[in-house]
Amino acid sequence: MTANILSKEQAVEVLDRLEIAYPDAGCALDYDTVYHLLIAVVLSAQTTDISVNLVTPSLFEKYPEPEDLAKAEPEEVMETIRKIGLYKNKTKNIIALAQALVNDYNGVVPGNFDELIKLPGVGRKTANVVMAEAFGAQKIAVDTHVFRVSNRIGLAHEKDVLATEKQLMLILPEDRWTRAHHLLIFHGRRCCAARKPNCINCCVRDICLDNNNR
CA of 82: how far to CAs of 85, 196, 211, in Å? Predict the structure, then answer.
């Protein structure tokens, strides 16, 4: 490992400490089916899970299945999810996504990463979340929190999301990938904020390379 990266032993120690700090870490999106999870994750891009949870009950009540959303009027969907960011573009995406599910997958969300990323509005992060949460695969979904926190601590030293994902897969035990995703998100939300990280109260401050290099 380079000086910019923690050792695998240190990486495991980071996870162990985060487990103690955030025993409740997990998916913050509300859903009851794989399809609803997929839609919720797509809607969560560049907005908070809290905001998504406020609009999805009405959305899923109106359009409970892909077949319902596939034939929905865009204006009605936009009105339903208006409170979240980028709601116009997300409306186009989720309607197109539902149509693709109906036309290409008999209305069933595919449990395959390569098939998931073919769907409108579904990128690597969304596909990884769905594979992990719905299908039990070990995946590291790199969102803004995971990207910031992992590169700040020293679990990765990369400039883009894909490279960070690959680095995390190398340094972290595979059987803890999904858990690591949740722990890093919680740490990012509750301690390691973008502008003012709470380093004094951080449970990994003595390991964190950013803190030690200040």
Answer: 8, 30, 40
Catalytically annotated residue among 16, 62, 125, 206: 125
Residue among 146, 144, 112, 104 at smallest CA distance from 128: 112
**What is the rounded distance in angstroms from the CA atom of residue 135 to the CA atom of residue 97?**
19
Please indicate whether residue 139 is annotated as part of the active site.
no
CA angle 35, 24, 147 (to 5 degrees): 70
Q: Where are the alpha helices (DSSP H) in the chain?
A: 8-21, 34-43, 49-62, 66-70, 74-80, 87-105, 113-116, 124-135, 144-153, 161-171, 177-190, 209-212
The answer to whether 143 is a known catalytic residue is yes
Helix (H, G, I), strand (E, B) or coil at 81: coil
Q: Among residues 92, 118, 143, 210, which one is catalytic?
A: 143
Tell me: the pLDDT tens digits for 78-98?
999 999 989 999 999 999 999
Structure tokens at 202: 């951080």
Q: What does the block give as tokens for 97? A: 């996504």
pTM: 0.92
Q: Using an 8 Å Cβ cutoff, are 74 and 49 in contact?
A: no
> Distances in Å between the alpha carbon of 177 and those of 7, 17, 87, 148?
16, 15, 31, 17
> Is residue 169 exposed (0-12), middle (13-18) or buried (19+ Cβ within 10 Å)?
middle
Task: Give the tokens for residue 141.
Answer: 């979904």
pLDDT digits 0-9 by tens, 51-74? 999 999 999 999 999 999 999 999
